[in-house]
Amino acid sequence: MLWIGLALLVVTVAIIAVLVSFIRGEFYFSRVKDNDTLSVEMRALFGLVRYRYVIPIIQFKGFTQGIMIKSEVVNDKKAELKDAKKDHITKDKVIAFYKEAKVVLMHTLNMYEWMKMTLAKVECTELKWITRVGVGDAPETAITTGAIWGIKSSLLGFGIRYVKLVAKPRIDVIPQYNQKQFSTEFRFAGRIRVWFAVLAGIRLLVRAAKVKGGLRIWIQIVLKSRSRVKTAS
């Protein structure tokens, strides 16, 4: 009985430790001249579970062909490439995604309220957005710099109000006078406790179940998304 009690105690402590641990995520985008890089990284269970998705190539092929991207799944622990795919983001795919999003919203009770409640539990641990801009003329560069500051302020003011800031943001627009240049680097890192993430998932299922056909629609969307990922090449 003593060993059973100790085993139950260890399991209970382990479950509590997992629930109070963080799921950490990081979004990074940079553009230097014509080179674009985008990466998304997720970590959980004290770093034991890690997923990194990288898009090292983003090419605009025109309005008919859309955007060509090359994506990679990287194993950081072994420093090796696990998978690589190429795909085209076309106008038809964007329209299809928009229609699916509308269907999901219609079949989930108060989806916007759920998103606000979930984002309120997200802590922003790093926010960096540095842009360098120059148009070849000093006065025009100054005007462009001010315009970019205004765009950044509006976008960040809209997005940050939903999450909790725990780190000082690093936001800057650096004018490059008398030269033509545009480069930007954006990094957002956040975390949410496993307990809150699990609770958010349960709440989402409950909200979908309260709408007729909601769970069925969610399952269809998830299966369709997985099939698109597997067939991408």
Write a structural description:
Pfam families: DUF2953. It comes from Paenibacillus marchantiophytorum. InterPro entries: DUF2953. The protein is α+β, with helices and mostly antiparallel strands and 233 residues long. The protein has a domain at 24-89. It is built from six helices and nine strands. The protein has helices at residues 2-20, 91-106, 111-119, 138-160, 194-209, 214-231; strands at 22-32, 35-44, 49-60, 67-75, 80-89, 123-135, 164-165, 170-175, 180-193. Strand 6 (123-135), helix 4 and strand 7 form a beta-alpha-beta unit. It starts with a helix and ends with a helix.
Q: What is the strand tally?
A: 9
Sheet-strand content, in percent, reads 35-45%
Uncertain regions spanning at least 5 consecutive residues: none
Would you tell me the overall average pLDDT? Answer: 80
Find the structural class using helix and strand composition: alpha+beta
Determine the number of helices (DSSP H or I, runs of at least 4 residues): 6
Return the string of H and E elements. HEEEEEHHEHEEEHH
How widely separated are the two ends? 56 Å
Q: Give Rg in angstroms.
A: 22 Å
Which percent range fits the helix content?
40-55%
Q: Main sheet? A: 9 strands, mixed
Shape estimate: globular
